[in-house]
Records
---
Amino acid sequence: MDTEFMMFIKQFKKNRLAVLAFFVALALVFIALLGSRLTAFDPLSTNLDARLLPGFWADNYENMLGTDGLGRDLLARLLYGAKISLKVGYTVIIITAFVGIILGIISGYYGGILDMLIMRVVDIVLAFPPLLLALVIVAALGTGIEKAMLAIAIVYIPGLARIVRGSVLTVKELPYIEATLAMGGGHFWIMLRHVLPNIITPTVVYLTLLLGDAILYTAALGFLGVGIDPSIPEWGAMLSGGKDYLLLGKWWVTVFPGIMIFLAVLSFNLLGDGLREAMDAKLRV
Amino acid sequence: MGKTLLSVKNLQKHYPVKSNDHLFRSDWLKALDGVDFEIFEGETLGLVGESGCGKSTTRRMLLRIEPPTAGKIDYQGVDLLHMHAAELKAYRRNVQMVYQDPYSSLDPKWKVINLITEPLRIHGIGTSSQRTEKAVELMRLVGLREECKSAYPHEFSGGQRQRICIARALALDPQIIIADEPVSALDVSIQAQVLNLFKELKHRLNLTYLFISHDLNVIRYISDRVAVMYLGKIVETATTEELFENPLHPYTNALLKAIPVPNPREKYDFKILGGEVPSPINTPDGCAFHPRCEYADDRCRSELPGLKSITETHSAACHLINVPK
């Protein structure tokens, strides 16, 4: 097991970009954990005398990244926002992965009436426009960050279940599945040890694309007033809230949250790529 | 001849297929239409037939991957179809399988050592280190180097992979090994090696084989007894020698004539069987072989021939063979 892990690390190290992404992701997690201690500003306190101040490029070393439309320090909001945005992103991914994979495997592996039932529910959910669906779910459950996360996860679960099911359908017809069954392996054993490892590639691809979407969807829900309270710093909400000032030439209000989302999404995608490669024995040289 | 290990009686498997001219009615594809044979302890039974004649369906029934439509499979006197979970698990421990395609019958994500210990893990045999020890022993037995144990299947050639499959099948010390075309995906030179391995293992471990193949030369080399299948039925069974020296059923005769002779100067009686295998959806009345048989008469067109014993070890399903009194 030890050597297996070492081989994994060795292979992972070969992908320089993935290693870089790993450290960026790690840094973001640190910011999320320690963010509130890294700045003296209160991210919620407004100061109408200091609205839309530019940052260090205009020799404003007090508000390094400038202030937003209500005079709140942008750097402080970004640091605080890391906690919420990453929490939302990763939680949504975990919920979606867990439920989507289980539904997809059950549906594809057992087939028949169970498959029919799950897939029709998936069809129903997919028939709604995603944002509308999330809105309806939040409206039904009530507002709050947990409910918003759940709503976004529900929007993405059907897509993942579909992808997983499709892959399972190909994998389960392969002789090694029958071979395992014939030597006495149970269905649970087969699903966990033979089906799951062989469908992980498309699943990881889907999930790595989800982080950015989840952060932006939270912003959209917040913007519509059903997700997170707009005063709470959250990258997506900051991005969409700042877009009105773009026309006034106050670019920093949107650009910095945008860069943070970009870093989070890109690092996660590259990390996912690297992990997938390192896990896949066939790509090891 | 030893005692009967596995006996198959009137095994049938019909699959529904959508009918072309009826919206709600389905036709039945008769993949197996009454198969009878027995496997005796310590022998190698060769099951031979063209593609689509039901060889692989027989395999699926024998492993109880799917339930048959009708018929009975007895394993040491216990009906396979009425076994409860524990009995079935014990059965699956005693009957192991080697597949045709060594590329897709090994999970690409598993290391060789784990693939070989998997059956032991499924049946909860031994501790982790005992299992590894056993697997290494098996690798040596089938002619794989121990250093390869942490490699993945894609790093091996076809022949080596088939050796891995064999080691896997041997892990549980089975009684019977069902081999479904185990060499037809391999190069000819490798085929001989793997066949010899099968033979050698049989002697060393006292195994019983059901060897499914379409290749008569392979069957002749490995089998003690041969069963010839045509369109979901057994048409002739005999010892290998008898079958190749004195084939009784016209179909067996035609099959044997189709074996190419590796000698360009030899006069070759090029009498190829006319016609095609009838569709298993619309099987002909009477003997299934009659549309292609040059000796067929009226009786063959209307009456289904049963498997008749000609001698103690030789039986055939044909009206035109006279049973010696």
Note: The CA atoms of residues 80 and 87 of chain B lie 9 Å apart.
---
Amino acid sequence: MRQVSEQEVLRVDGARKSFRTPESGVVTPLDGITLSIRNNEFLTLLGPSGCGKTTLLKTIAGFEELDEGEIFLEGRAMSAVPAHRRPFNTVFQNYALFPHMTVAGNVGYGLQVAGVKRAEETARVTDVLRLVGLSGLERRKPAQLSGGQQQRVALARALINRPRVLLLDESLSALDRKLRQSMQIELKNLQNTVGITFIFVTHDQEEALTMSDRIAVMDKGRILQLGTPAEIYDTPKNRFVAGFIGTSNIFSGTLAKDGGTSRVDIEGGPAIAVTADGFASGDKVDVMLRPEHFALASGRTGAGGSLDAVIENIVFVGTDLHLHGRLANGLPVVALERHARGAGALSLAPGQTVTLHYQATAPHLMKSQAA
Amino acid sequence: MSKRRFSSGWTALHIYGAAFLIFLYAPLALITVYSFNSNALNMAVWTGFTFDWYRTLFGMQPAGAAFDAAFTENPDRIFGVLRNSLIVALSASAISTVIGTATALATARYDFVGKRIYQALLFMPMIMPDIVLGIALLIFFVGVGFKLSLATIIIGHCTFLSSYVYIIVAARLAGMDNTLEVASADLGAGPVTTFRRVTLPLIMPGVIGGFLLAFIISLDDVVITYFIAGVDTQTLPLFILAMVRRGIRPQINALAVLLIMFSFVVASAGLYFRSRRN
């Protein structure tokens, strides 16, 4: 089994890059990024398009230069090392397979360029094609392969050089959902087998959650939060991260501490009972409640609170029911109910007022960004 | 859907199509037939089949009395002229292919000040009237003291052939995925290896197509060559022009047929290379 060690393999230090575009003035895809990547970990750079994640990947690969800052591989500065001398390999978003070469030619390219002997090349190509499940397709041209197969060729081509770090640029987004999910699992298994550090770029939060050891959430050229999927999901640092990962209800308000209890007064609406360590009374805060934190029944033990909402829509997704409703002050709210066959679903209907119960430990407080 | 509704328009289209092909190819067919006609005085009257015109073209003595004593062209001259033409066409198209390809690569891969103007200027030699280009080149060569020779013809041809090659290779490059070169670098290949193993093979159909087009254009250029060929250098088209001035002789028909066949082979090769890699 793969061991993620604390040992640092790659370090991005104060990376900054900006350029001028004819339309919108100066764009800053990297605005002071510092990031330490551990040996053998699966790190995901997650963010909306234009957040700088692909630029960061390209500067690590050496396709683009930094204006400021440095990238260190095991302590060695990389800025003077051109892309073709860096021990990193990339799986491109569009795979970038050489159309004039066969599968074996594509996969063996890195070895040929490095001057590896013919016999060894053939053996290693055979090995790596078996690893990605493409044995027997050596003589095919890329155009004769399906999207999933092309993706595997791209992966095999990048892996055969045994890179220190494998860079994956939105490499799964071109595949359909089912294929993507099976490739996600295969990629994880593969990483366990080969033991290489993976840096994965995606805008798909679900993909990031399922695959990563750690996620770096990026926006506007900065890393907003770096942590394990659970940390990012449970304790997002701000409204942006909370909204980007998973579904969430986020309310803005003012914290009021009253003896042992705390609550957040939502502007023009109800108060939410919270536990508020590290915040002072009167702080402007955002409160996040995940849909699964709400329960229609108040049967749970412990302190908590409730919100009354009018149901507007009920979406059935198999395992769950998504209840889309509105609070008295008009704010939208989403709650999630486990689908119990027959029972629960029948008693709910749009227009109905329900009470959504939550426990006091459920609401997550974040410093308001409005200021 | 009744057939009748279409019939009149359909027939007209058929006639038009046939007329179009006849208009294009009847003169070529006629020349081919004439080139085998033994009648030396009036080629429009068929007197019998002969290879004589081809034989005299290649310097072999004709068998029959059909040989026109008035035919005074020296076969050695024809070969000399043909050699000139091939030297010019091969050198000019080879040089133009290198220049045109390099230019296409530069404009496709790099941004530089004045790039748009530069690209627009590359079209100029193609849209400029040949006669203007010919005179301009003549004035230039004389002005800088170049003796008119095969070399000046080659240089002159390069000025406009480079544009043709540029346009064909640039079109090919536009259809090529830039990330392929990035991928090659990513896999450890330096710039030279990347060019040799990835870029060049992918644009090769365009390069070969450009070369063949340049070759054919150079081979039959009359107007520009006329100005920049010296008094003692002649290319095949100039030679034919000079021959025709003294009356159309049957040998010209034979020569024309050979040229048609040659062009056909070159054009076929070009089309074959274009289709093969797509």
Note: Residues 8-242 of chain A form a domain with the Rossmann fold fold (CATH 3.40.50.300).
---
Amino acid sequence: MSVTVRDVEYVAKLARLEFTEEQKQKFTEDLNGILNYVEMLKEVDTDDVEISIGAYRVENALREDVVKDSFNRDSLLKNAPDSQDGFVKVPKVIE
Amino acid sequence: MHTKTLHEIRELINKGEVSCVELTKNALDRISKVDDKVGAFLQVDEEGAVNKAKEVDEKIKRGEDVSFLAGIPMAIKDNICVEGLKTTCASRMLENFIAPYDAHVTKLLKRNDAVILGKLNMDEFAMGSSSENSAFKKVRNPYDLERVPGGSSGGSAAAVAAGEAYYTLGSDTGGSIRQPASLCGVVGLKPTYGRISRYGLVAFASSLDQIGPFTKDVEDCAHVLKAIAGYDEMDSTSAKREAEDYTKYLNQDIKGLKIGIPKEYFAEGLNENVRKQIENAIEVYKKLGAEIKEISLPMSKYALAVYYILASSEASSNLARFDGIRYGYRADEFEDVVDLYVKSRSQGFGDEVKEELCLVHMHFLLVIMMHIIKRH
């Protein structure tokens, strides 16, 4: 099964990206290459293999639920592309 | 001076033969002399570095005990936060992002009075293995400027190899420390998952990402690892184990140590010179009394394919946060909020990143399509 330019357009939409025609051509070729390569995984029989989530036993490291100072709002808003009155400014999302 | 190791420099400082300010100025000179060619640095914090060095010199003058790393110039990959400096991930997306806090490793380095020279170039968002995919400039191999330094931590490896910093930090998801270290002839370590907190590292593939050191020799590596390892409550995958003094293992006897040599790693395509070097190393271990045993890891050939799927899936969710809303690049013109996401991401991300983000959707799309076809 191979990927077409239309598929690339569809996944670009899912990833919230847009491409030039040239990029679409290149990505279609590249993605076909990678997908053909990962096809090899199909030959592995995993029916009797137990699910493994890593080589080491890692437990969630939960911390105590204590109230602590958080970040200063102004220092975080400095990186916002647009802000007003202590809030991040975005285009209108409801009609 | 710039060819010396971290531990040699420590000795010189301790003997009073060089001051931290001198060292720092030397390093800054070295950067201005060679970095036009090497391209390892994205940002140099001259003032911060010199001030820190002065502070350490004064501590030493007052007779205070200082840490092993104190006053020695180092640098950090540009996907690890240093408060007040830019963290760009070598991407247009974060070109103007100023880190509002220190990464855990940065906090530990500062506690050890490290002199932070600046931030290091890399493949955009750590995706790549040549350091050619930086949005700003390419990193070059200091040993031969026509060759790549490897990646994605190419800046971290090249800076150590070119004597621009005595040690650096990088990050490794699928080889991004080990491979550039090898290509630049320096020591690079990807520590065990959980050993070092990733708090303040811009995430790529969280189940694989680790921060680690680049140094000139193994002894230096033990010192740096000791300083940055340990539990951190801000990273839930961080192991609840204290940092160890890794330097105590340096001169231990290895008689009887069993070393497995996976035969799959000597596959077709392995460079002859590389093979010879590995064989030399095996001989050295044998002479030191280690037991060498050939083993087989038959699933090795599938590793890269599995990696592609895992890494692109995790990258896709980790990079969803770059939407032009709270921080990072926002397109100048857009129609509505969805268009804002699309335009900001399309203009902010480089091609390599976009392709990675598409790959995962493409893979799932094919899986779904195959299921549909099977059903009919």
Note: Chain A is about 35% helix and 5% strand.
---
Amino acid sequence: MTKTELLQIYRKLLVVRMAEERISAEYHLDEMKTPMHLGIGAEAISVGVVHCLPKNTKVFGTYRNHALYLALSDDLDGFFGELFGKNSGHARGRAGSMHLSHPDHGLILTSAVVGTTIPVAVGTAMANNYQNKKETVAVFFGDGATEEGVFWESINFACLKKLNILFICEDNDLAIHAFKKDRQSYESLERALCAFPCHFAKGNGRRVDEVIKTTKVVLEKMKETPGPGFLHLDYFRIVQHVGPGFDFDVGYRQKPTDPLEYDPLPIFEKHLSENRISNTELSQIRRELDKKISMAVENARKAPFAPADDLYLDVMMEV
Amino acid sequence: MTKMMSYRNALVTAVTSEMEADPNVFVFGLDVPDHKRIFGSTAGLVEKFGSKRCFGTPLSEEAMTGIALGAAMSGLKPIHVHIRSDFMLLATNQIINMVSNVRYLSGGRLSVPLVIRAIIGRGWGQGAQHSKSLHSLFAHIPGLKVVMPSTPQDAYSLLRAAIQDPNPVIFLEQRWLYDIEGPVDLNLNEKLGHAAVKKEGKDVTIISTSWMTVEALKVAEVLNKKQGIDAEIIDARSIAPLDEKTIYKSVRKTGRAVVLDYDWVYCGFASEIAASISEHCFDVLKKPVLRFGFEHVPCPTTRPLENLFFPAAPKVIRAIENMFRKAPSDFKDEYFFSYDNKFKGPF
């Protein structure tokens, strides 16, 4: 990768991390009244995969969607506007954190009921097929979603119709507070999926460079032999399921000793320093982003709420 | 152009004409292209439009509904067919959590032009899992339209309107209605959301849904003949949105209202209508609003109990006679509908 590309990726990772750290720091002010499922520790997956997606890819995600939103759109005003419940949010405050979307930038839909966007993404891929469009669809979901019936129904149909869709499983081993070993009887997702004709790859979701490499390989295979791709990427959930606290604070899980084992930011910073990118350059980016985020938060704070007349707006389209 | 046709042929004719008009319309669901063609209601589609636009699916109701949503959001116009409404319950997660609120949660950026057709079974032991209508359940959810046509004309016009509508529509077809013959004006364009006055009258307003419109007409006929009571019949047709104006206008004229619904009464459409009439027409009501619907048990299979389960004209006539303090009329020479004695029309 070129230096520009490396810095571009770093900027993405950092904007997500810093935006979420800001949310954590200001959460107690009780202005952002929306359940926040922070993705601290998971940034490399969204940023890495999005980096590889072809132009005009339609993307679907979950309630843990901040990284996806910012990797795709860079629209900090829309982001904080929605979290503050203001009219400046993309959905004018109706969506909040759990339903963020930005169709203009490819983030079509995210959802708070586990597994629900998976078939919708498959339907989007089917529509591309129907309309003879070559565009790709990507859908992100957690390891918990793979236990839902609709996940298997969707994989089956996507493989049956050889659809151009990339499934991305962001595996943090946890469904709220339940570990995989207590939820899954099968040996591994890879083994469970092996009878389905899709291009499967596993990778370390804490290393953005590895995410990018793995994603590119799968997208290439999807071009060679049409059919779905499947990325199984693991990461360490640094914060708790919802809200800004840490699971290890309550003694529920052990914190790994070395951040280089689990935290995508220092891991990538090490990679950058190995590629002779100086700390000064990185600090410069950090200062810039800090300013942008502060401005977006202030803009959101000042923005008006939706007027009362808006309550019934957009339930249905007028005929 | 007006033609005589059955309800099932009216459905096929409507879908065919919409598929001809718009290449984005497609039909899919379990059994849609098989040799039985959903009681004939998808006949000829696969031959005419090919398997790209008319196809069967895996037994995956939830995923297929999500897939329909994805397709609808991408500019296509899917028609998803369920051979029984009961099977639609497997898809309620997508319908209620996703389909109904995508537009709202996207701040109006996305729209969902989706039609879900489902058939309400009845008779010959359809039983607890093949006979639900579920319109009250879906009408309860903001963001969904719910339609129940009762005539060949409505099957044709309202299905076309549903396909043209940019919002999600649940379209419920009662199985016995399939055999009804009636005139269909192929040029009649309607929009969803309007009730139909099936018969004008001055003494009592009967608000009916789906098959109960057939029963209501029978009720009116007997009451008129035997008691001189002149009932006005309003077929709700659109459960959501509701044409309240037409209903209130009629009740303001008659001062009496009876709701004949094809669903359970408790927390159902009949209760909703009764409550709304009480709120808006209390000053003119001469009697409390009466409600009829399914008995509050799962639908039994055995015929004698099944006959008790479904609301039917004789019971309604007795209640209205009572409302007018009339002695019960003689039913000896009356012809009432049953599985063995189905109504074939025309209306």
Note: DSSP finds eleven helices and eight strands in chain A.
